[in-house]
């Protein structure tokens, strides 16, 4: 079972599991995910969809009882959504995970819990390793609510592992990108591509010198799937991401070049893009030594290839008469 299975990462994971011969049930309330991401799978007899909130305990009880592994991806994501809808962010992320873990314990089912690099907070030791201390911002900055909820999710999952011997694996994703990712909630790479293809200004927030490492979704899905098969991963927290670091300004320039765009690159102050007092990470670089020692995985897709995949995806949407969002 995949929670959030109609989302960007969830839909790709669904395809990978079906390809492996698994029977897959997804549950998604479509608050962030899109049914278009999974429509092509409707004819597959091993694929089942439930449109529902994961906090519906009756539905979750039935679905968990019928599955072997739960991939828990459902969450409120995206900086814009986190800032504009903090109540939903906190309640879905913590409440949903609580339901998943309680129900998994009842039926002794393995849980693969998606977490995020955001839990490292304002850490200044690079690259980030899984046992690093974390440094969150002040609670008056709701920018940090998402990071805090995911940290609570991790604490709760590890508590179930230690106290109830529930098999859990926690994987922290670092800026996963690729086809189907929406720019609707502020995701930077699809937002840049959409602007470049439309000939609109490519808006870079802040000074553009903040840097990120963007992991290709196909590489990330392979890591998640392989970890789910590894006994050594149970009870562990594991980074998944690329180590190809790029500044956001450089990213905008590369998107513009590869899209053959004439768009201007413009700088937008954080105070204009979000609320006043917004805080951002300057760098976010994962250590992947732990996952490499466990399953001998490493990312193989270069950033330029990922950018090309996203450009191709959105150009096809345009050619099919769809909009770019």
Short description:
With 325 residues, the chain is α/β, with parallel strands linked by helices. It is 40% helix and 16% strand. The strands form 4 sheets. A 7-stranded parallel sheet has the order 3-2-1-4-5-6-11, sandwiched between helices. It has a two-stranded parallel sheet with strand order 7-10. The protein has a two-stranded parallel ribbon with strand order 8-13.
Notable characteristics:
325 residues; alpha/beta; Rossmann fold; 7-stranded parallel β-sheet; two-stranded parallel sheet; 40% helix; 16% strand; globular
Any overview of this molecule?
- It is a single chain.
- Strand 1, helix 1 and strand 2 (24-28) form a beta-alpha-beta unit.
- 40% of the residues lie in helices and 16% in strands.
- The strands form four sheets. A seven-stranded parallel sheet has the order 3-2-1-4-5-6-11, with helices on both faces. A two-stranded parallel ribbon has the order 7-10.
- It is built from eleven helices and 13 strands.
- It has helices spanning 8-19, 57-65, 79-84, 86-107, 145-164, 188-198, 217-228, 248-258, 270-273, 289-295, 303-319; strands at residues 2-3, 24-28, 47-51, 69-72, 110-116, 168-173, 176-177, 202-205, 211-213, 215-216, 237-240, 245-247, 265-268.
- The mean pLDDT is 94.
- The chain has a domain at 2-177 and 214-242 and 283-300: NAD(P)-binding Rossmann-like Domain (Rossmann fold, 3-Layer(aba) Sandwich).
- It is an alpha/beta fold and 325 residues long.
- The chain is globular.
